[in-house]
Amino acid sequence: MPNATILVVDDDPTLLELIQDHLRKAGYVPLIAKNGNQGLKLFAQESPHLVILDVMMPNKDGWKVCEQIRTSSDVPIIMLTAKDQEIDKLRAFQLGVDDYVTKPFSFAELLARVGAVLHRGERNPRRTVVIRSGNLQIDLSRRLVIRSDLRVELTPIEYRLLEVLVRHPNRVIPTEGLLSEVWGEQYMGENKHVKHYIWSLRNKLEDDPGDPQHFITDRGFGYHFE
Question: Element (H or E) spanning 137, and its range?
Answer without folding.
Answer: strand 136-139
